[in-house]
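Entry for the shared binder. Reason: the reviewer on the internal report wants the predicted structure included alongside the sequence.
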Amino acid sequence: MSEERKVVKPYNNESSSKKEEVAEMFNNISKRYDFLNHFLSLGIDKIWRKKAIKQLRDLQPKKILDIATGTGDFAVAAMKLKPTEVIGVDISQGMLDVGIEKMKRKGLDHVIQMRIGDSEELPFEDGYFDALTVGFGVRNYENLEKGLTDMLRVLRPGGKAIILEFSKPKKFPMKHLFGFYSKRIIPFFGKRISKDERAYAYLPESVEAFPEGKAFTDILEKIGYSKVSAKTVSGGIATIYAGTKKQ
């Protein structure tokens, strides 16, 4: 499958890359991100993360990497697995700064580290992690296949990747409700609360452009993930993808 896909960027500036614009966007909205995230998802995002983490329970991972960690919500959810080390990486220092304070408040900073990092060039040795998670981040990758390949590199053989991402509901009435909500309600409140004109208009645009479902699982299998699966949640608003590194 080709990487020739429509490139959707937050600010559509010809002189900057998608990666640069995504980092700028999250820096801009970092102070209000947690409030907006839970407000606009009606808190359902927390349930999705719990369901995603359950798929790692049998693996009992000790070293977990959370990519595009943002303020660290997925990293916090991973603590249910009783890991000895969780590292959250993100390209936005603004989001990481909020996350670092969150870990201190929750008393988790002795287990969860927050680091600046690029999903396409992860600063870790081959096979270091037992499991990795990505929550609503892969659609922001500049080069999707390169990012997914580097994720596979840092997993140990038998290690598992869990990717939680928005998708597009296919059936009435959820299809129409989500379409209206994501294209009207989210940009309306997002713009007013975050004070960033484009950030929450970019969200539905990036969801629309993302190769979801079978198109995405085909990419995972092509790159070399095994035991690939996709499970929709909340009527198809989001999908939990899983893939394992071959032994």
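Summary line for the report: The longest strand covers residues 155-166.
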